[in-house]
Design brief:
binds iron/sulfur cluster, globular, 25% strand, alpha/beta, 256 residues, nine-stranded mixed β-sheet, TIM Barrel, 11 strands, 9 helices, single chain
């Protein structure tokens, strides 16, 4: 059986999809978004986070076989069966580990557990082909329509992200497009309109807006890293309504 580079397995999660879920965070990402709230999952290497104020050290990163991950997950099976719950694979970028992810999804399906894959989509389409039949839903980040900003700030190829989104939607997969709202990066009227134009061209109908927050701040400190967004203020209610109205002209919109 294949192995997964697992950062951590979080039980009874309520913020990563419907119902009660187990979220498997996979380690390693090919992007470098400076606002990332899971900085411990960017490097594929094992890492220790030292929370000095709490006198606590937490380690992230462990190779596990698919069988080990499934057996860990299945301890909570009754909670999945009780509602719309299931498993969410997040990261990091789960689609970098597509072969093991595909095997994991298939094993979970055999046990009646549904799977959401949370991806930024910046991987070769062939990676999606391997998992497209075994994943139930994709949560798909769309960060900007600006090719240069995506390349220079996030470190990826936006045209690949858009092309993969078009392909997923044309394969009739259930895709929730999720837009992180990052101050100074993608919140101006033109930023929003340009993202809408990209998403309309891909055939999206629904979007989730994810307002910036600083909940990952302490992790940067524990990793000994500077956090570029340490003093950035999350968008207020008026700004969120303004942005929601822009997206609302074209899509059904949900703010998380
Ligand atoms: S794609 Fe996600 S996990 Fe990767 S750096 Fe960006 S925000 Fe972090």
């Amino acid at each position: 059986m294949k192995k997964l580079n697992v950062s951590c397995i979080q039980r009874f999660s309520t913020g990563d999809g419907p119902g009660i879920r187990t979220t498997v965070f996979l380690k390693g990402c090919n992007l470098k978004c400076p606002w990332c709230h899971n900085p411990e999952n960017i490097s594929p290497e094992p890492q220790m986070l030292e929370y000095r104020n709490a006198n606590k050290i937490v380690s992230y990163g462990k190779m596990m076989t698919v069988k080990e991950v499934v057996s860990d997950i299945m301890e909570d099976i009754e909670f999945y069966r009780a509602g719309d719950g299931g498993v969410t694979l997040s990261g990091g970028e789960p689609m970098l580990q597509y072969e093991a992810v595909s095997e994991l999804c298939s094993e979970l399906h055999k046990n009646g557990v549904t799977v959401i894959i949370d991806t930024a989509g910046c991987v070769p389409w062939e990676n999606f082909v391997s998992v497209i039949d075994s994943a139930d839903i994709f949560y798909y980040d769309y960060k900007t329509a600006d090719d240069d900003a995506y390349k220079n700030i996030c470190g990826g190829d936006k045209s690949l992200v858009l092309s993969n989104l078009c392909s997923l939607l044309s394969n009739k997969k259930s895709v929730h497009v999720r837009i992180p709202l990052i101050p100074g990066f993608n919140m101006s009227e033109s930023d929003c309109e340009n993202i809408c134009a990209d998403l309309l061209s891909a055939g999206a109908e629904y979007v989730d807006l994810l307002p910036f927050h600083r909940m990952g701040s302490s992790k940067y400190e524990a990793l000994g890293l500077d956090y570029a967004y340490k003093k950035t203020t999350p968008p207020n209610a008026k700004t969120l309504t303004y942005i929601k109205n822009i997206y609302g002209k074209y899509f059904t919109v949900n703010i998380e």
